[in-house]
Amino acid sequence: MSELSTVTVLFLGPMELGLGLAIVVLLFGAKKIPKLARSSGEALGEFKKGRQEMEDEIQQAKDDVGMQSGVSGPDPREEQSEPSVESEQSAAKDT
Predict the structure, then answer these.
(1) How far apart (Å, rounded) are the C-alpha atoms in residues 84 and 92?
(2) What is the dihedral of CA 10, 16, 22, 26, to 10 degrees?
(3) Where do the DSSP E strands lie in 10-85?
(4) What is the pTM of this model?
(5) CA Rg, the chain, in Å?
(6) Which positions ≥6 away from 24 have C-beta within 8 Å?
(7) Per-residue confidence at 87, pLDDT binned at 50, 70, 90?
(8) Residue 9, H or E segment
(9) What 8-state DSSP symbol labels residue 80?
(10) Of 3, 11, 27, 75, which has the most beta carbons under 10 Å away?
(11) Alpha-carbon distance 12 to 14, whole Å?
């Protein structure tokens, strides 16, 4: 499948949306749609709440590790910066 046809599938026009809505009404019935939407919204809210709690726990763990090591500032595991021009010149003079 070409990239262009994949992108066009993602864009739904009013006819496609109307047809989709009609299928949903036929499958679930008009009385069950509000309940279905409400429960979907609640599930999404719980998912977001759980995700936020997980992110908070990860951040707390990162903060705890930083406090235990006593290191402040940049991460010591990051790559060291390149040597300065002066140190390169002095190394060249030694050779």
Answers:
(1) 13
(2) -50
(3) none
(4) 0.44
(5) 29
(6) 33
(7) low
(8) helix 3-10
(9) P
(10) 27
(11) 7
Query: Maximum distance among all alpha carbons in the chain?
Result: 87
Cα separations (Å) of 72 from 14, 27, 46, 59, 92? 56, 59, 35, 16, 35
Check residue 53 and give its pLDDT.
96
* 8 A C-beta contact, residue 64 and residue 56: no
Tell me the C-alpha distance between 71 and 65, whole Å: 9
Using CA atoms, how far apart are residues 64 and 92, in angstroms rounded to an integer?
44
Using pLDDT thresholds of 50, 70 and 90, give the confidence band for residue 79: low
Tallying the residues shown for the chain, one arrives at 95
Q: Which two tokens stand for residue 76?
A: 């010591």
**Euclidean distance between CA atoms 51 and 45, whole angstroms:** 10
Alpha-carbon gap, residue 24 to 18, rounded angstroms: 10
Q: Which two tokens stand for residue 61?
A: 């763990």
Of the CA atoms within 13 Å of residue 82, those in its CB half-sphere come to: 4
